[in-house]
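Human:
Class, as today's exercise, you are to examine the entry below, and be ready to discuss the fold:
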Amino acid sequence: MMQIRRSQERGYADHGWLKSHHSFSFAGYHDPAWMGWGNLRVINEDRIAPGMGFGTHGHRDMEIISYVLQGNLAHKDSMGNVKGIPPGDVQRMSAGKGVMHSEFNHAPDQTTHFLQIWIEPNVKGIEPGYEQKTFADVDKRGQLRLVASPDGAQGSVSIHADAALYAGLLDAEESAELALDPSRKAYVHVVRGTLDVNGQRLNTGDAALLQGETQLQLAHGEDAEVLVFDLAA
C-alpha cells in the first residue's frame, strides 16, 4: 500500500516571522487522520525570517532532527551547546528527561529554511543529548545515504528510536533503491524537485506513505532531494 500526501494538503501557519507547513498535526493544526506515521510524529517545513527565531523553550522524551535547506540555524541549549547548522548538516537532539533550547536566524537578509523532524523514542527519561554531523552532497548523489540510525551505522547520527533516516540527491538518469520490511512503515518526503516514487510522480513537499511494501524505487529525478524514513509500525 502506498498513499500520496500532496504538499498543499499539509497544515499551514503564517506567524509573520515564521511560515510553517505541517505534515502532521502540530500546534494549531489538528487533523485526527494525520497524527503521525509509525513513530514519526512531526515534519515541519519552517521558514524563519531574517533576525528572528524561536525563543528558549522546552522539550521532553523526543528525538528531534533538524535538516537545514537554506541559510543557517543557530542552536543554543541547556546542555551548553552553541552551534550553527548549515545545509548538509544533520543535527540530532535527544530531549530525554528535559532540555531547553532556542533556534534563531541571525542573518540580516536571508531566510533560514529547514525541516524540523520529531521521532518518538524507544526509551524515556534518559539524559538529554546532542549530535551534529556533515553529510557531503557527493555522498548523497545518486544514492540514499544513511544519516540517522539507532546505532550510528555508517557514520550516521545516533537516535534513541526504532527508525532510520536516509537522504538522497537524484537527477536525470540517477536512481536509488531501498529494500523495505513489509512489517514496518516507510515515509518518503520530497524536499525539493520532482521524482518518481514506486512509479508515482511526486513534487516538492509531497510525501509517500508506504506499508506492506518490500521495495522502494526512486527514479527520474529533476533536481530532487529526498528524505526516506524506515519506521516502526
Summary: The chain has one helix and 20 strands. The first strand starts at residue 2 and ends at 5. The mean pLDDT is 97. The helical segments are 137-140.
